[in-house]
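Can anyone check this?
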Amino acid sequence: MSNIQQSGTFAPATFKLGSHTVKRLGYGAMQLAGPGVFGPPKDHDAALAVLREAIAQGIDHIDTSDFYGPHVTNRLIREALAPYPDDLVIVTKIGARRGPDGSWLPAFSPEALTQAVHDNLSNLGLDVLDVVNLRIMFDTHGPAEGSIEAP
């Protein structure tokens, strides 16, 4: 029995994520990319090993985005885990992009959101995304108000 599946006082509960039931503890893939979540990781093979070990330990959902890297984490996930286990839920997000200098930029026009979905599908090697979250970037450092309505 893996660590994540052990019973006891602090055993992870399950919860509904869309139509999926997942364990409360998942894996956030953001830090698989290089420094500042930009560019490739320092150690490509170690990044693949981390992903494979997470699944071996019972992780059943991964949080990622194609703007991590950009494109880096999703390609690592695909390389390490495809073909994906049947019970693995991949949760991705859209609504931002990275500038050439690594800056975080808003990307929530209809065209940008559509492109982000296609990029996530392509780089993960999937036909369907399990869960897509919209990340609105009015301020990269904290809560901010704004509208996504077209001007």
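Reply from J.R.: I decoded it. Residues 110-124 form the longest helix (15 residues).
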